[in-house]
Structure formats: C-alpha cells, structure tokens
Amino acid sequence: MTLMDKIIEINSTVNGIVWGIPMLILIVGTGIYMTVRLGFFQFRHFGYAIKNTIGKVFDKSQKVEAKEGAITPMQAVTTALAATVGTGNIVGVTGAIALGGPGAVFWMEVSALVGMATKFSEVTLAIKYREKNDKGDWVGGPMYYIKNGLGKKWAWLGGVFAVLGAICAFGIGNMTQMNSIATSISSAITTLIPSTVGSEGTIALIAGIVMAIVCAVTYLGGIKRIGEVTEKLVPVMAIIYIVSSLILIFIHIGSFPEIIRQIVVGAFNPSAIVGGALGIGIVEAMKRGVGRGVFSNEAGLGSAPMAHAAAETEGPVHQGLYGIFEVFADTTVICTMTSLVILMSGVEIPYGTNPGVLLTNAAFSATYGQFASVVVAIGLSLFAGSTILSWGLYGTRCAEYLFGTKVIKPYQILFCIMVVVGATMDLSLAWDIADTLNACMAIPNLIALLALSPVVIKLAKEYGAEHFTEKKKA
To answer: How far is it, in rounded angstroms, from Cα 327 to Cα 227?
Structure first.
C-alpha cells in the first residue's frame, strides 16, 4: 500500500465517523433542541422573518446604510448565501438522490426545517459576541462567541475552530469549487465547439486565472467590496437557475404527483422505489438526505456567522432572522429545484453511484438539448464562484483570529494562488479531506451553541416581547 493509499484509507475512516450517523444526529439533534427551546420560533414567525429580511429589499423606506467597517444586513446574508449556495446545490443533491434514493430529498427538507433554528442561533450569537479589530471592522463567528461567551478558558476551543476553518477554506471553499467550475466550463465549451477537444487543460487554466483576478480585486476592497459583489451576484445567479429549473418542472408537471409519492414513500421504504437489490435502506436515505442538506446550508457548521457578524443591524435577533431566510433559500428553494429537475426530467438515475454534475447535465439536456451544458456551466460557475469569494472571507477571519490583522493580505494572496492550482489539478482526495475538515468545524461550534442556548432563548424572548406583543396589541 502506497503512502497516498494510506492517506485515503485514513481519511475515509475519519470521514465515515465525522459524517456518520452520530454526527448527523448531533447536528439535527441540536436543531431539534433549539427548535423546541425557542418555541418553534422559525415556524411561528416565518412570515415575519421573510417580511423583515428579503421583504425589506423591496421597501425603499427601510434601506439601511452601513457604517465604516460594516456591511448592510442584506449584504451579510448574500455573502453567507454566496458561500452556502455552491456545488452542493447542484452536485451534492445528485449524489444524495443517486445514493439515497428519492426519499433522501424528504430528509434533506426535514434537516432544513430544524436547521433554520440552528442558523438563527448561530447568527444571533455572532452579533451578540462580535468585536472590532484594529482596522475598525466588525469580526465575529464561533471563535468569538466561544471566547467572549463561554469565557477565556474556552478560547482554545475557538482556536481549534479557527485552525480548521483557515485550512478548510482552501479545500471546500476554494480548490474544489474552482475545479468544478473549470470542469463544467471545459465540458460546455468542448460540447459546443468540438474543435477544442484536447484543450481542456488550457481552458481550465484560463478559468482559474480569471477567477483568481476576480478574487484579488474583490478582496482589495475589503469586507464592503465582498458585500457589494455578492449583493449583486447572488440574486442574479439564483434567478437564472430557478427560472431554468421552473421551466423544466412546468414542462413535466404531469409527473409531479408521482414524484412527490416517490419522495415520501422513499423516505420510509426506499426499496419500494429503487428496488431492494441496491441495498438502499431508510438509514442510508436519511444519512444522504440530512448530510447533503447540512453540507449545503451549513447550519451548525459555524461558517455563515462570520459573514453576519459584519452586519450593520438593529440587534442580534433581528440579524438572526436572516439565518432563517438563508436556510430556506438555500435548501427549501434551490436544492428542491435541483431535486425536482432530476426526478421529473425522466432521465435514468444510476442508483448506487455518485454521478456528480453529469446527472444534472443529463436532466437539463432532456429539455434544453445541447444548450443544457451551458445552463449548468453558468449556474455552477456563479454558485461556486460566489462560494470562493465568501470562503476567502471566512478563511481570512479564522487566520486573523489566530495571528492578528497582519496575516490578512498574505492569506488572501495564497488563497488566490490556490484558486489557479485548484483549476488544474485532480482533486478527488482534496474533496474528501475538505469534507472531513468541514464536519470537524461543526464540533466546537455545536458545543458552543448548546452551552450558550440560554443566551439565545433570552434574547429571542426579549425581542418577542418587544415586537410580537406590540403586534398583537395593535
């Protein structure tokens, strides 16, 4: 056995633990616990949350101007959404369905429902315990609410999160995303222009260089520039992908009742839908669905609070409302679109394998023909590109927590270089290692969430007494 084989074997074992049933129970269990303790806040006040988050975008009188060192609440949520809406929404969902059957979609939706409470709690704590760095920027996230909320004796746990986050940003938020972009663009170009077959390496390199330049220019402008870019990019990419998906869904609307039946029945009896020979049971369907849901919306992983901490907001709970909207937009809307496109398109699903973006391409091709590769390439490039921009911020914040503001520029330079590396390398092992580190980030964050849950509950009650009681009286 070679050294590389040994590394793969060790990582596979660790990955099976950190993304195994116990870990998923911990993540979902935290969501259920916070849901109950908060009195089902995300359900009772869902309309209020939507009205006071995305609803304010259309209300000119409610426009918020961010002060120096901060971004607007909507820029914070688009930055966080830019990170969460990535390859997981296109590639990850295909893997969940192919390996867990249609029932995986049901469990993915369930994980999102309780994940809203988790994300709400994370964002609320991020605002409550944030601080300003020596550049005058608001900084926060799990490492700060661990240090400032649990006390300095727990600062080491925040350091563990920061180390994992700083390293993980190069994998799950950089090279693997860029590799997906390069592969998708190369596939689209060679499909439309057959004469370019054989030039995939050159196309990938060019794509990597262009993305690195975009990152460098964005990071030069600091947190405000990142917020301004994602505020424009996220709505555009979401609209393009959702409209393309809805057209396909409406064309195949006759199959909708049957697909819903497959999703519900498949959640509790997968063999009735995919056949017993494949060995997909209820545990596998649940594991794949919940795992992809968490991987996509990042509820419990602790990444998004780092973006929200920079918001110029009315208060912790008010910004926490954006966390509810974020999970809804990422999983309930966009991941659901991908699921329905795959299941309603009529394409054969290779159950028991992980077909990746090829299955999504095939699903769109059933309606859009050769142009499908362009649709997927545009969607994947926008999704993954925005993820790279946001994870550069996350990695920078983690490195800054460990070494101070002097590390910001060196870290960002290295981050941009690794974008080019990611575009031109085989990153199958990098995907696996990044996936493992991503799950490891959740452990210190979930410990802090559970320990600080009384703070979240107290803040939510105070906010409710001021806003929801007045609403009832009115």
So the answer is: 19
Q: Which residues does 356 contact at the CB level (< 8 Å), separation at least 6?
A: 91, 94, 95
The token duo for 293 is 């849901």
Which H helix or E strand runs over 139?
Answer: strand 138-139
User: Which burial class, exposed, middle or buried, applies to 57 when counting CB atoms under 10 A from its CB (0-12, 13-18, 19+)?
Assistant: middle
For residues 333 and 5, give the distance between their C-alpha atoms in angstroms, rounded to a whole number: 39
For residue range 338-378, what is the model confidence (pLDDT) as tens digits? 999 999 988 888 888 777 777 887 888 888 877 777 777 78
Nearest to 456 by CA among 311, 299, 297, 319: 319
pTM of the model: 0.87
Under 8 Å between Cβ of 449 and 27:
no
H helix intervals, 39-101: 41-44, 46-51, 73-84, 87, 93-100
How far apart are the C-alpha atoms of 297 and 314, rounded to whole Å? 24
**Residue whose pair of structure tokens reads 């309606």 in the numeric block:** 367
List, in sequence order, every residue forming a beta bridge with 67; answer none if it has no partner.
Answer: none
19: three-class secondary structure by DSSP = coil
pLDDT for res 474: 46
Residues with Cβ within 8 Å of 45's Cβ and at least 6 positions away in sequence, in order, are 321, 464, 468
Q: Which residue has the higher pLDDT, 398 or 387?
A: 398
Q: What share of the chain has pLDDT > 70, as a percent?
A: 92
The secondary element (H helix, E strand) that includes residue 396 is helix 372-403
Torsion of CA 359, 364, 370, 373, to 10 degrees: -60
Q: How many whole angstroms separate alpha carbon 441 and alpha carbon 313?
A: 26
Distances in Å between the Cα of 129 and the Cα atoms of 138, 258, 302, 410 are: 10, 48, 14, 27
Mean pLDDT for the chain overall: 85
Say if CB 41 and CB 468 are below 8 A apart. Answer: no
**Whether 27 contacts 110, CB under 8 Å:** no
Type of residue numbered 370: Q
| Cβ–Cβ < 8 Å for 370, 401 | no
Q: Which two tokens stand for residue 184?
A: 């998708």
DSSP state letters, 263-292 = HHHHHH-THHHH-GGG---HHHHHHHHHHH
Q: 222's torsion region: left (phi>0), alpha (psi -120 to 50) or beta?
A: left
